[in-house]
Design brief:
Number of strands of chain B: 11
CATH superfamily of the domain at 1-44 in chain A: Glu-tRNAGln amidotransferase C subunit, N-terminal domain
CATH class of the domain at 1-44 in chain A: Mainly Alpha
Strand order of the largest sheet of chain B: 1-3-2-4-6-5-10-11-9-7-8
Helix content of chain B: 40-55%
Largest sheet of chain A: 2 strands, antiparallel
Number of strands of chain A: 2
CATH topology of the domain at 3-251 in chain B: Amidase signature (AS) enzymes
Structural class of chain A: mainly alpha
Shape of chain A: flat
Oligomer: heterodimer
CATH superfamily of the domain at 3-251 in chain B: Amidase signature (AS) domain
Helix content of chain A: 25-40%
Order of helices and strands of chain B: HHEHEHEHEHEEHEHHEHHHHEHHEEH
Structural class of chain B: alpha/beta
Distance between the termini of chain A: 44 Å
CATH architecture of the domain at 1-44 in chain A: Orthogonal Bundle
Strand order of the largest sheet of chain A: 1-2
Strand content of chain B: 5-15%
Largest interface: A-B, 54 and 73 residues
CATH topology of the domain at 1-44 in chain A: Histone, subunit A
CATH class of the domain at 3-251 in chain B: Alpha Beta
Radius of gyration of chain A: 23 Å
Number of helices of chain A: 3
Chain lengths: 99, 478
């Protein structure tokens, strides 16, 4: 196995994803198959290849920088319009710290 | 008014000859699309108010004697991962079932400025993750050509809407083939432009280094028109390219004599099928138009799937972190603490494929694995891009299949995610390299299923891609 049940649960924790036991079993099998296929990459020698993070074109370093000029922003009301629980101009969430 | 027979040019002609107004056309297109939708589930919702307002602006411009723009009055469908201010945008996800964006995507702004009329938002795989549109939280889309089959994905709703004739053109998004593969399955034209050609501002992020917005249409010319409208530098997307946008439609002269085309041997070796036969016949047609065809090699092809599914899931796991129950409508009801709220919201809100990709992406980025997976994949990506750069030293365009097979049956592949991933082999390479690529219809199988041929060209050379596809389309229509 490329990935254990314990690792699946650990990764789900990192991703803030609550999984059922059935999902843990399913994803363990799925990820195992996918990681097996991904192992193929070890066949290819990339020691002299620079990683490609982005499709880059010839342009000056500053070509994509905008002028540092003030412009209107979304505004609080629009930003909060989709909040599940807005309140007093803020996003409200369940309590973070036990008192 | 026969809505399915409309083209951009016919709409314009009808408006300028005052045979119909844009408002009448919009109302009729909406009525028709709503009546036809139960057959395919291509649309998730319609936008009548917005459509009629846009149509009214076009009518006013015509009345004042102004040019109403290159897309004047044209009914457009927009994939529901592209933001429309005041019009629900769900991304095919339960998480965003009630999300109403506070702003428009740049592509949406530009197509409306050009006179386009958005009639509705189209169904798709959740957050554009899938190859069949079966991963939508709102039910799958049926292929208008064969209703027991998928339309492809993830932009299955946009492809189906155009194939069904309810929209003249549509916007989709492509990260690993999500425009070209459904275009192929539904028998329409689908275009993935050069990375950065079209602003991604307002496109819900899936894998930012691979995401593209692009057109669907029933003719090459209409896709060329739509791309011309939405392309170009946008200060709101720093990866959008500051490159001049040619007048694509003016350059469609039908003459492709002497164009050098490459056939990648790695793409054709395993294609002993009806799809392969149709591509071969398509290549013969291109030869008869005077193109010079030679075999080329893209030696890193075998590693593309592995490379792609590391990069796209890594980027997706980061991009989807924002759906945490704080800002975007859906929150799990039963949580006492903040961390439980995050976990429960995401566990209840995301569908299986999104969870699978978040898991894989989180795994490959996690401590100890970054170099072995993500960094390795980025190096392999450079090799895949180099393969194309080398090939384009010899040829002007590459011709290839889009998918190893035509549209498959609903439910046929849902239980085998790896098999579904492997079927993306011919489309993901173009996204990894960031080059323009498109699917153009090249015939149907004995069973009547459409098959698309893929054309790929150099960065920013959409012109050659459109010219070749247009000449091919004319020859096919005979």
């Amino acid at each position: 196995m490329k990935i254990t049940e314990q690792e699946v649960r650990y990764v789900a924790g990192l991703a803030n994803l609550k999984l059922t036991d059935a999902e843990v079993a399913r994803f363990q099998a799925d990820l195992d198959g996918i990681l097996e296929h991904i192992g193929k990459l070890n066949e290819i020698d990339t020691s002299n290849v620079e990683p490609m993070a982005q499709v880059l074109y010839d342009a000056e370093d500053t070509a994509t920088l905008r002028a540092d000029a003030p412009a209107p922003t979304l505004g609080g009301q629009a930003a909060l319009a989709n909040a599940p629980q807005p309140g007093a101009g803020y996003f409200k969430v369940p309590k973070v710290i036990e008192r | 008014m026969d809505i399915p027979s409309l083209t951009v040019a016919r709409v314009r002609e009808g408006l300028l000859a005052r045979r119909f107004s844009a408002a009448e056309l919009a109302a009729e297109a909406l009525r028709y699309a709503q009546a036809e939708n139960p057959k395919t589930n291509a649309y998730l919702h319609f936008s009548p108010e917005r459509a009629l307002a846009a149509a009214k602006r076009v009518d006013e411009q015509i009345a004042r004697g102004q040019d109403p723009g290159p897309l004047a009055g044209v009914p457009v469908a927009v994939k529901d991962v592209i933001l429309t201010k005041g019009v629900r945008t769900t991304c095919g996800s339960k998480l965003l079932a009630h999300y109403v964006p506070p702003y428009d995507a740049t592509a949406v702004v530009r197509l409306e400025q050009a006179g386009g009329v958005i009639i509705g938002k189209t169904n798709c795989d959740e957050f554009a993750m899938g190859s069949s549109t079966e991963n939508s939280a709102f039910g799958p889309v049926r292929n208008p050509v064969a209703p027991d089959r998928v339309p492809g994905g993830s932009s299955g709703g946009s492809a189906a809407a155009v194939a069904q004739g309810t929209a003249v053109v549509a916007l989709g998004s492509d990260t690993g083939g999500s425009i070209r593969q459904p275009a192929s399955f539904c028998g329409v034209v689908g275009v993935t432009p050069t990375y950065g050609r079209v602003s991604r501002y307002g496109l819900t992020a899936f894998a930012s280094s691979l995401d593209h917005i692009g057109p669907f249409s029933r003719s090459v010319k209409d896709s060329a028109t739509l791309l011309g409208v939405i392309a170009g530098r946008d200060p709101r997307d720093s990866t959008s390219a500051d490159a001049p946008v040619p007048d694509y439609t003016a350059l469609l002269d039908g003459n492709v004599k002497g164009l050098k085309l490459g056939l990648p041997r790695e793409y054709l070796k395993e294609l002993m099928s009806e799809t392969g036969d149709l591509i071969s016949r398509g290549v013969d047609t291109l030869r008869s138009l005077g193109c010079q065809v030679r075999e080329i090699s893209l030696p890193s092809t075998d590693y593309a799937i592995a490379c792609y599914y590391i990069i796209c899931t890594a980027e997706a796991s980061s991009n989807l972190a924002r759906y945490d129950g704080v800002r975007y409508t859906f929150r799990s009801e039963m949580s006492d603490t903040l961390s439980d709220m995050y976990r429960n919201t995401r566990g209840e809100g995301f569908g299986a494929e999104c969870k699978r990709r978040i898991m894989l992406g989180t795994y490959v980025l996690s401590a100890g694995y970054y170099d072995a997976y993500y960094l390795k994949a980025q190096r392999v990506r450079a090799l895949i891009a180099r393969d194309f750069a080398n090939a384009f030293q010899e040829v002007d365009a590459i011709v290839a299949p889009v998918s190893p097979f035509p549209a498959f049956k609903l439910g046929e592949k849902v239980d085998d995610p790896l098999a579904m991933y492997l079927s993306d082999i011919y489309t993901i390479t173009g996204d990894l390299a960031g080059i323009p690529c498109m699917s153009v219809p090249c015939g149907t199988t004995a069973g009547g299923l459409p098959v698309g041929m893929q054309i790929l060209t150099r960065h920013f050379d959409e012109t050659t891609m459109f010219r070749l596809a247009d000449a091919f389309e004319q020859a096919q229509r005979g």
